[in-house]
Write a structure and sequence with these properties.
409 residues, alpha/beta, seven-stranded parallel β-sheet, 14 strands, 35% helix, 15% strand
Length: 409
Amino acid sequence: MIPGHSLQLVQVCHKKTDDRWLERSEYVTEDYFLMYWNKLAVKGMIKGTLTISCFWTQHIDQRLRMIGESSGSNLNKYRQYYNVESPIKIRPHKYKFVDEETLFASFRKQHPLRKDGLKILILGELSYNPERIYAFEEAGHKLYGLWMEKPPLPLNYVEKLPFGHVDDISVKDKNWTRKIKEIAPDIIYGVSNISGVLSAFKYLSKIRECLPHIPFVWHFKEGPFAAINSGVWQNLIYLYNEADGHIFLNELTKQWIGQFIIAAKSSYILDMDMPKMDYFTDNFTPKLSEKDREIHTFVAGRFIGIAEEDIRLLAKNNVHIHVYSESFHVYQHPTYHFYQTIAPKHFHLHPHCSNDQWVEEFSRYDAGWLHLFDSKNEGELQKMNWDDLNLPCRLGTYAAAGVPMISKK
């Protein structure tokens, strides 16, 4: 018996008047019945003892903490841990519903391989808009994946992808380097934000020991400052130095990292998290402002840089803010609740909006908010920080919906 699993149901059954447990049972009771209690039911009769035989505890491998975003975990960690191979339909949080079967339905067709197609080994994790790599398959290339373990964030898509036909290489297999030798990939595509730097370093250094001549391209998304703060700066520099090709987020990032590395001859500029072109549809929706003659703006993702005084001023001038959180709603909920109290008619919370609904949902607004911050670098490259270099991944979302974007000058 795994500590905590049976007690969760005991608490729900025996403390029905306790609102806290009722609220928790709404999300986990069915899952526990399906995964645990049904296996006991076939063994014979189940009878309550009315005595406490175990107690509630917490550990990182509990199913509740393996999948629930409110518990600090995520769908991809759950998928990897339980080796789930089929698309998942689940509500990991009350503001978010995920239906991978529907969302990725158009990205499962098998495409013929070109005679001159490449065997591409993807190294790391895919972050936002992971289905973009399906474009490689559409172009006739064969994909393999060597993924980071225990992805810490909901955006870290790794193995058993619910789209495409990527052949995964498990690092749990002691002979995974031999398998890569057998595959003999034409190129290794390292792609990750800060979460996957350490894994990419470990895997690439192992691969280099036995296969030193496979070209390696490094595509890094997030600002390198997080690498310094989290202690993986040397690992990041290794990946840049080992790369035969670099793909930079933008020209400014290329200049900044160029202070520490020599850029590869083959270097390109491309945002890592760009959405697939399939989401740029034409099902636009009439503007809300056409009905009430008030301005309606929205935020897709984290609520960054808009303060209490801004909310009050915007509401005073009949400017609405509609918030659609991707992964951080639980952390910002107290702030959102406060904003609703000071601007009840102008601050609106909405459920998560999936990629296939971007155009229809977001085109109704007059503009979308980017990250708002005051730059303090005084025009000096050495003084730049994460905000200066970063391109918010919501840029592609707003572009698909055809809305203007709001940012500080």
